[in-house]
Amino acid sequence: MKRVKDKIFGVIGLGRFGHHVAKTLAQGGAEVIACDSDEEKVRQIADLVSMAFVLDATDEKALKESGIVNADTVVVSIGENIEASILIVVQLKELGVKEVIAKAANPMHGKILERLGVDRVIYPERDMAIRLAHSLLIGEFIEEIPIGEKYSIFEIKAFEFMQGKSLKELDLRKRFEISVLAIKRGEAMLVNPSGDERILPGDILVVLGTTAKLSELSK
Ligand code: ATP
Questions:
Q1: Rounded to two decimals, what is the model's pTM?
Q2: What is the DSSP string of the chain?
């Protein structure tokens, strides 16, 4: 596996989403090639990334010349112009880009992108909305990785009522169908903690469960 610093990322479409993806990747030390058909959008990112081009990415020749097709991962961030998004994805796939990630404007757009073999379809507004709602439902929410439709891995601050109790005493698995996968304690990470492990103040728990059960727990 290549290290992030050795990877080349392409970002096509520099609206709000694409701009922040390109900027954050570049700030993280990655090489980023960005493009947009709008000159102003390209100007706004030009100083931040390795290379930035004004081009119509539906034009295969322009796409090849930009070098974006040599990237390890290309993010297509075009929501409004669904036709352009589809044309670009097809060309990236045909030109052999290893990993294509694309933003979908709606479920139908997402379905088409999946059928075209996009490796990861992103629904930024839906995903952010769900994340926000979950963080409001679960008091001590830090991070969430969705696993399938219903389940997520959550990182939460241990609730106050847990402090001093062992995992056996808390019995989260039986009472809430929640599994504690790990406990972060300062710099230490206790993976697969035993039932005798006691929760200490400041502990962060990595748990697997549903939002519904976790919000029940936070009450
Ligand atoms: P956001 O919500 O992230 O701001 P959006 O989905 O509303 O984005 P869009 O209008 O879909 O934004 O387009 C994103 C960007 O993609 C725009 O800056 C637009 O100029 C660019 N874009 C659209 N079509 C092409 C194309 N064929 N080639 C290159 N860039 C394109």
A1: 0.78
A2: ---GGG-EEEEE--SHHHHHHHHHHHHTT-EEEEEES-HHHHHHHHTTSSEEEE--TT-HHHHHHHTGGGSSEEEE---S-HHHHHHHHHHHHHTT-SEEEEE-SSHHHHHHHHHTT-SEEE-HHHHHHHHHHHHHHSTTEEEEEEETTTEEEEEEEPPGGGTT-BHHHH-HHHHH--EEEEEEETTEEEES--TTPBP-TT-EEEEEEEHHHHHHHH-
